[in-house]
Design a protein that fits this description.
Elements lengths: L1 H14 L13 E6 L4 H19 L5 E6 H6 L1 H4 L6 E3 L7 H11 L3 E3 L10 H14 L9 E5 L1 E2 L10 H4 L4 E2 L2 H13 L4 E5 L7 E4 L2 E4 H9 L6 E5 L8 H10 L6 E3 L7 H6 L6 H14 L4 E8 L6 H14 L3 E6 L7 H5 L6 H24 L5 E9 L15 E5 L5 E5 L8 E9 L3 E6 L1
Parallel strand pairs: 1-2, 2-3, 3-4, 5-8, 8-11, 12-13, 13-14, 17-19
Antiparallel strand pairs: 6-7, 9-10, 15-16, 15-18, 16-17, 18-19
Helix pairs in contact: 9-10, 10-12, 13-15
The chain binds 5'-deoxyadenosine (5AD) and iron/sulfur cluster (SF4).
The site of 5'-deoxyadenosine (5AD) has 12 residues, from strand 13.
Length: 448
Amino acid sequence: MNKHDTALVRSALDKSGFTFTEQVEQADVVLINTCSVRQHAEQRVFSHLGHLKHIKKGRADMIVAVIGCMAQRLGDKLLEHEAVDLVCGPAQIPQIADLVAKVLQDGQKKLAVTENIRQTAHEEQDQALEKFESTYGIEDKQIPGQAFVRVMRGCNNFCSYCVVPYVRGPEVCRPPAAIIEQIRKLADTGVKQVTLLGQTVNSYKYKSGERTCCLADVLAMASDIDGIEWLKFVTSYPSQEFFDPILQVMAGSPKVCDYLHLPAQTGSDKILRAMNRNYTAGDYLGLLDRARATVPDIAIAGDFIVGFPGETEEDFQATVDLVKRARYKNCFIFKYSPRPDTSADKRLQDNIPADVKKRRNIELLAVQGKISGELSERFLGKQVRVLVEGLSKKPHLDLVESKGEPQLVGRTATDYIVVFNGPQSLAGQFAKVKIARTSPLTLFGELT
Ligand code: 5AD
Ligand code: SF4
């Protein structure tokens, strides 16, 4: 979601005549897009700001803008920071070019965030966001041939640990016609893979008259667009709502990729209740069974939080058991980080010691690593189709013979990362790769 916001802001500033530099010292304007989901992400921003404070000593004309979730969460407190000139929340990014211009012009600090984000209807704001998305969302191509399309903003779930509902506001679904139009325009510019974005993307729904359009309908409509070959969507919430229609369209349409990101967060029913996630571990595994019965080769990724308040060894073992039974392709595992204003932070003490959180994190990663390794190995000797992203960022020294070509990275429809040698011109194209070696998170092979 944040990467997508960054891309939109970049396009908007580009259109207003700004040029870009990656060299902080050269910049007249520095923008930091921020995440509030864990404390660590916020700490990193403060350390960037500390660095910028020094740079600004010799560059009085430089302005620093903090945008995104931290801007919304901290508001004027962030503006008080010596290095910060502009604080702009996620709902104010449509005004970013004007805001930056104003601060450059009059040199005054500026705050642009939403007051009472949960309480009032923000119709004008929603319209501005919709216009911003449909205008700049068609240029959002950080990776050649691929694009993100947001189908909904905000969240109404209020998981007890999560800051998102307080910084991104109530759930708002975009009109299906606008989404489809945007995907069509992206296809016209050569985009082959579209990833639909939403905090709980599977519960997307849009009512117009008697009819309710759900995510399965959007996927079906998008499948009819020429040029679009792969459709993905993240992130899903493990609810019964609309689950089966989505699986049906996945099974029926070759374009809808057989991939689900379905965070469970924990395998303990007690902790699930404390997290305000309205399912049990049994319900969750039932969804996975249904998914695998309908889409046999479906790849599933998960998210977990370890060390939630009150998590006993027994609760943690329930998580380990769930991970073993779920057989995820990969998992993102996080240590619980208390977020101010969330109900977990208000009601529960962060009572799991840091070293216990760390141990559980390492243990769960090891359990998952073994499963990921086994699942990857099934690809040995097989040919896979990948959409090539570009040059591989980290060199894999033991990659089979290089033929003088650079290392490229691509992903399969089921989100496996594949590294191989090939011409850079393949970026944004489909390629076939025969897998010669595997590691838990990466497949290595040769272009065929
Ligand atoms: N502490 C740790 N992890 C968190 N997540 C969300 N909030 C927190 C928190 N307070 C994790 C969840 C979510 C992912 C995006 O981040 O696992 O799925
Ligand atoms: Fe946060 Fe829960 Fe909403 Fe996901 S579903 S964004 S974890 S409140």
